[in-house]
């Protein structure tokens, strides 16, 4: 086995025909070298020194051929034993004692040995063709120069017939050897082509592994994006909750302002009946108006800050909507990529089917070749197993890709629904911002009204003669202020309700995002399984 391994190393860069013929040539030469010493000893014992010299020369030539074989000189290693066998067969034919026309059969039998040898060790059809021509020439020469001259009578008359028959048989054997040699060479060449095709298929599978790895990385990035969106939704929920708390505080302040206005109205009504207490009442009313003005300024400041917060919330919501658009586009790209993988997998399945058909054809050719094709039949069976395994793996990959595509379609529909919900949230936030703007304007107007009331109270302090008219004006202004405060209180209630709706919408969005995140996680896991399956296929 060490000699065979050494020969494989020497001829590893040669053609597939030579690589497959080298072991047969080696064993043929070794067998000849093993048998010739026995013949040499036998010739010495019998005292036939001429045949001893001939056989010893053959022994040396076979040794030279074996030496050339290990040097990488395959042509020399093949040519030497073929020429030697032709010369040896010719020599055996020449030493025959001519007696009968049937000896032509014997000569043709001698020349069949080189023909069989060429089929076993040659890598080209030229060798069997050359040996066949040489054999025909030798048979004719021996028949007409050695056998025919000594024949007479019946033997001479039957000579031509008995010469044509062995030559015809030898010709048929030559054609058969040419067919076998040609079939072996073509089978080996097809095997080499199929081997190269298999290497190309492995390269394509490696490319699929790379693409699967890229898909897996994209799925992981998408999962991270969903985590970021969930965190943003939580921050929005916190901001809306704070907005709800501020609206409650504002509503409490508005209730206190309403009570103050009611108290002022009661005092103004008492002005008509308590003129003596006018100055003290005016002072108390002035203090109340100052408190009201401060409250209105505070309300205006709070509503201004909340309006700014609502604007920021609107910006964040619009940014989240754009992020969801990007994620939806990424999911669509993943669906397209999954379809491309399915098409590539279909191509791989078709290649596996063609490989299986080729292996069956190769097995049929090996069966036709008989004993000489037995080794190739094993190779064909292994190729068929590989094709079957590739087809099965391709089917598994197709199922995985279809599952992945189905999951991504579900993810795409969920993303579209979530995008619709988020659009509604943005619309609600815009309405909240507009409401805050109206509240700010209303509180500014109320603050201005409070200042006018304060000016009126100062006028009442300077002129007691116009107390009645001033108190009437104050009552009127207080009624207007009360209506304005009730309007503001209604707006505050609407803000609270809107905050509740936003919280509910954010809860729905959070649940939808969590569901989407689970789907993306499942998609990532499926991508990982696909990557592992394709990697195993590439390793096989």
TrEMBL record:
Keywords linked to the UniProt accession: Chemotaxis, Membrane, Transducer, Transmembrane, Transmembrane helix
Alphabetical GO biological process terms: chemotaxis; signal transduction
Top-level division of the source organism's lineage: Bacteria
GO cellular component annotations of the record: plasma membrane
Pfam families according to UniProt: MCPsignal
Domain Methyl-accepting transducer: 253-475
Molecular functions (GO terms): transmembrane signaling receptor activity
Transmembrane segments: 21-40, 52-70, 77-96, 126-144, 164-182
Family per record: Belongs to the methyl-accepting chemotaxis (MCP) protein family.
Name listed for the protein in its UniProt record: Methyl-accepting chemotaxis protein
Organism expressing this protein natively: Spirochaeta africana (strain ATCC 700263 / DSM 8902 / Z-7692)
């Amino acid at each position: 086995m060490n000699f065979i391994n050494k020969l494989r190393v020497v001829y590893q860069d040669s053609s597939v025909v030579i690589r497959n013929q080298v072991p047969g040539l080696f064993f043929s030469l070794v067998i000849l070298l093993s048998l010739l010493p026995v013949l040499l000893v036998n010739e010495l014992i019998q005292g036939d020194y001429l045949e001893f010299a001939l056989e010893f020369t053959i022994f040396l030539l076979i040794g030279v051929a074996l030496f050339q074989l290990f040097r990488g000189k395959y042509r020399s290693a093949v040519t030497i034993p073929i020429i030697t066998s032709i010369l040896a067969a010719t020599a055996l034919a020449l030493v025959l004692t001519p007696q009968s026309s049937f000896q032509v059969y014997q000569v043709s039998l001698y020349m069949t040995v080189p023909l069989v040898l060429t089929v076993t060790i040659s890598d080209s059809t030229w060798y069997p063709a050359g040996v066949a021509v040489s054999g025909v020439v030798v048979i004719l020469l021996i028949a007409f120069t050695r056998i025919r001259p000594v024949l007479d009578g019946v033997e001479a008359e039957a000579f031509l017939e008995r010469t044509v028959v062995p030559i015809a048989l030898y010709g048929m054997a030559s054609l058969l050897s040419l067919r076998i040699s040609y079939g072996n060479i073509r089978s080996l060449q097809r095997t080499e082509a199929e081997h190269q095709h298999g290497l190309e298929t492995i390269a394509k599978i490696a490319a699929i592994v790379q693409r699967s790895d890229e898909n897996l990385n994209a799925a992981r990035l998408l999962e991270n994006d969903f985590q970021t969106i969930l965190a943003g939704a939580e921050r929005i929920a916190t901001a809306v909750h704070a907005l709800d708390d501020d609206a409650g505080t504002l509503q409490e302040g508005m209730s206190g302002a309403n009570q103050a206005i009611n108290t002022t109205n009661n005092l103004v009504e008492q002005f008509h009946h308590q003129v003596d207490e006018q100055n003290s009442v005016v002072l108390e009313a002035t203090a109340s108006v100052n408190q009201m003005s401060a409250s209105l300024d505070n309300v205006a400041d709070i509503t201004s800050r909340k309006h700014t917060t609502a604007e920021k919330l609107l910006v964040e919501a619009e940014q989240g909507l754009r992020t969801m658009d990007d994620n939806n586009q990424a999911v669509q790209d993943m669906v397209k990529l999954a379809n491309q993988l399915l098409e590539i997998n279909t191509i791989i399945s078709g290649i596996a089917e063609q490989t299986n058909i080729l292996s069956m054809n190769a097995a049929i050719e090996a069966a036709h070749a008989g004993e000489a094709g037995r080794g190739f039949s094993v190779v064909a069976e292994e190729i068929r197993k590989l094709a079957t395994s590739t087809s099965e793996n391709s089917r598994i990959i197709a199922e995985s890709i279809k599952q992945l595509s189905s999951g991504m379609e579900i993810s795409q529909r969920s993303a579209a629904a979530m995008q619709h919900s988020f659009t509604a949230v943005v619309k609600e936030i815009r309405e909240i911002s507009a409401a805050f703007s109206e509240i700010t304007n209303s509180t500014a107007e109320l603050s201005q009204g409070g200042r006018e009331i304060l000016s009126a109270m100062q006028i009442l302090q300077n002129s007691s003669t116009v107390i009645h008219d001033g108190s009437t004006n104050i009552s009127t202004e207080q009624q207007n202020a009360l209506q304005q405060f009730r309007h503001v209180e209604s707006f505050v209630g609407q803000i609270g309700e809107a905050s509740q709706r936003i919280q509910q919408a954010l809860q729905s969005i959070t649940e939808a995002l969590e569901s989407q995140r689970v789907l993306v996680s499942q998609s990532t896991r499926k991508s990982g399984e696909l990557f592992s399956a394709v990697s195993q296929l590439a390793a096989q």
